[in-house]
């Protein structure tokens, strides 16, 4: 069995005053993660105040390397199957995303993935991930 | 202050409809309210507290208090999704214990079947949700947010699709006796595994029904419960929790039941092994498995073995669950299953469940719900009840 990835523009994110920089970076192909200036911890999704200590936070660029924590090939919610996933970034935070550019039936928990961006309907591209090794 | 013994569930009613294109949502709320009051032997004039959640139209209690003709001195529209109505039982007991009301009415109703709403549909995220930009683009619907929990459980603990299927099989064994159940046919593990894959690893038969309908509960202070003619169902303990993505330290191996459950058991001063019947929210099979583990009915990771081979079937296994057929087979009104969980627990404690599924000497029961999305953020509510 194989389930090819079908390139589909995704629903646009609601750009808000506290995440404008994130989407500007996304348009340049960079993934930003918010880190706390007090406790030093990164968190996800981005907030201006740290969810661990309420300290002020700042953007830092992520490496774009990660590991699949969980996933599900969703076959009956939309015109074509897609693979929703949680990916744990090298920086330690786990983010919701899609796995793209591969046979979706080969996706596995623990798989190494690398950052890529997927266009949205009328907004900035959103971070998605593809298998780090070709095939 | 503990709520143990401070209030009783004196009325319970599940609307018999499963498809109501000819009724309004407010009308269903009213029919449920009347049904529960009649069950209790009380009237509209006795109600001085009202509880509802997001399924109620408009601003919820403001619109519904006016529509129902209630004269209340206490209202609460806590909304933790499908678990809200279990939390409402606890909140009603708190309000009664604090002297804020004497007779509390809780209602739920909705028409997702007639309105074509389901767990694979794109969600309406609304404005200003902080998580929307980072989740809505990925089409996080209902089913895939539970599927990712199941996928992780399988990876971490070796749980299988066959084991999850047993949860549906058990529910179907119960539903065959419920004339109102949407799905009354007994199914096998193979039936579940051969049903269409919706979102890996959840098949169609791992998912609950989409039904119209509703339910209502009446909670009253002990002095009022004592003069009513119905069997007495005492509230022993309750717990609540909200669990999310933990700042990005996502851990799908446990649910909010791991917090709400122990709080409820401590207040009730009993242990999971004391429970004779459990209503466990079953939006999906994995929802049941997670909550059973988190409530302490088995160890974390052993849920798959615990539910297999009919262990949840009344008269067969050790822990009879959802003897009305649950959300998986009977009813999931408003896409929110919390109130039907309490209603079937009340039936069991009163000895009024269907004879084929009635648990013998059922003196202690639990109702557990999660609401929202197990894979992203959800509320959890647990209530423990005793037949007096």
Note down, in words, how this protein is organized.
The complex is a heterodimer of chains A (135) and B (388). In chain A, the strands form two sheets. A five-stranded antiparallel β-sheet of chain A has the order 6-5-4-7-8, with no helix packed on it. Chain A has a three-stranded antiparallel β-sheet with strand order 2-1-3. In chain A, a hairpin with a 7-residue loop joins strand 7 (112-118) and strand 8 (126-131). Helices cover 6% and strands 36% of the residues of chain A. The radius of gyration of chain A is 15 Å and the shape is globular. Chain A is mainly beta and 135 residues long. Chain A has one helix at residues 20-27, and strands at 32-36, 42-43, 57-61, 65-74, 82-89, 94-99, 112-118, 126-131. The relative contact order of chain A is 0.24. Chain B has 388 residues and is an alpha/beta fold. Helix content of chain B is 35%, strand content 18%. Chain B contains 14 helices and eleven strands. A nine-stranded mixed β-sheet of chain B has the order 3-2-4-7-1-8-11-10-9, with helices on both faces. A two-stranded antiparallel ribbon of chain B has the order 5-6. In chain B, helix 7 (161-175) packs across helix 11 and helix 10 (257-268) crosses helix 11. Chain B starts with 7 loop residues before the first strand and ends with a strand.
């Amino acid at each position: 069995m194989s389930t090819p990835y079908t390139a589909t523009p995704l629903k646009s994110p609601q750009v808000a005053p506290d995440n404008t920089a994130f989407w500007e970076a996304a348009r340049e192909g960079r993934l930003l993660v918010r880190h706390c200036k007090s406790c030093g911890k990164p968190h996800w999704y981005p907030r201006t105040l740290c969810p661990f200590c309420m300290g002020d936070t700042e953007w830092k660029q992520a490496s774009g390397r990660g590991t699949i924590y969980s996933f599900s090939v969703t076959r009956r919610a939309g015109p074509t199957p897609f693979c929703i996933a949680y990916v744990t970034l090298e920086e330690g935070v786990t983010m919701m995303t899609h796995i793209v550019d591969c046979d979706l039936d080969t996706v596995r928990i623990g798989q190494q993935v690398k950052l890529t961006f997927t266009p949205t309907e009328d907004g900035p591209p959103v971070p998605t991930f593809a298998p780090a090794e070709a095939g | 202050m503990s709520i143990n013994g401070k209030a009783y569930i004196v009325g319970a009613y599940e609307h018999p409809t499963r498809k109501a294109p000819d009724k309004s949502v407010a009308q269903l709320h009213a029919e449920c309210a009347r049904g529960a009051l009649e069950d209790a032997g009380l009237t509209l004039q006795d109600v001085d507290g009202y509880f509802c959640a997001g399924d109620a139209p408009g601003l919820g209690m403001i619109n519904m208090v006016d529509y129902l003709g209630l004269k209340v001195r206490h209202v609460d529209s806590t909304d933790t999704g499908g678990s809200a109505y279990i939390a409402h039982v606890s909140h009603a007991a708190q309000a009664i214990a604090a002297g804020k009301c004497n007779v509390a009415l809780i209602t739920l109703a909705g028409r997702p079947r007639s309105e074509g709403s389901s767990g694979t549909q794109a969600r309406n995220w609304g404005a200003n949700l902080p998580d929307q930009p980072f989740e809505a683009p990925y089409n996080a619907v209902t089913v895939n947010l539970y599927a990712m929990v199941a996928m992780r459980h399988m990876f971490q603990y070796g749980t299988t699709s066959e084991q999850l299927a047993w949860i549906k099989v058990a529910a179907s064994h119960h539903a065959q006796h419920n004339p109102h159940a949407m799905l009354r046919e007994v199914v096998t593990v193979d039936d579940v595994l051969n049903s269409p894959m919706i979102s890996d690893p959840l098949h169609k038969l791992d998912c609950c029904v989409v039904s119209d309908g509703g339910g209502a509960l009446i909670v009253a202070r002990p002095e009022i419960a004592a003069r009513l003619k119905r069997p007495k169902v005492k509230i022993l303990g309750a717990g609540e929790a909200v669990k999310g993505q933990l700042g990005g330290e996502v851990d799908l191996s446990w649910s909010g039941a791991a917090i709400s459950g122990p709080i409820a058991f401590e207040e009730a001063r009993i242990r999971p092994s004391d429970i004779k019947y459990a209503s466990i929210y079953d939006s999906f099979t994995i929802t049941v498995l997670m909550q059973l583990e988190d409530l302490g009915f088995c160890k974390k990771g052993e849920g798959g073995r615990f539910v297999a081979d009919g262990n949840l079937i009344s008269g067969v296994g050790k822990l009879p669950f959802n003897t009305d057929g649950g959300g998986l087979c009977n009813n999931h009104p408003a896409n929110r299953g919390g109130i039907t969980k309490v209603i079937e627990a009340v039936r069991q404690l009163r000895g009024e469940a269907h004879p084929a599924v009635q648990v013998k000497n059922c003196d202690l029961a639990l109702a557990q719900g999660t609401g929202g999305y197990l894979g992203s953020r959800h509320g959890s509510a647990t209530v423990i009840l005793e037949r007096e």
